[in-house]
Structure formats: structure tokens, C-alpha cells
Amino acid sequence: xxxxxxxxxxxxxxxTGQLIAIDTQAPMWMQKEVYRRAVKFKRDFRYxxxxxxxxxxxxxxx
Length: 62
Hints:
globular
């Protein structure tokens, strides 16, 4: 797996200079980016399930 930096996240990081916590309170576009990468991990490492899916009430969809 060789993830390409997300332009929106990179821009935000450049602006703040701080790491960005992405959890269920983060904007949905950020959650979708984490979910997309989690799906790649599932496929590449043959996990049984996606390791990050948001929360149980509002799960992230790809």
C-alpha cells in the first residue's frame, strides 16, 4: 500500500501545523478518507473486517 496524500488534508495540515484528529466528530469528507484507506488495509492485509468504520449510529459509507 502506497497511499497518496490527500490534498485537502495536506492543505489543512500546512495551515495549522498540527496533526489532525479524525474521529466521529470530524467532517464527513475526512471520515470517508480514513474509511477509504481502512478498506485498502482490509484488502491488502486480508483482515476480516474494516478496522475503522466511524460510529455505530452513523457508519461511514464509501
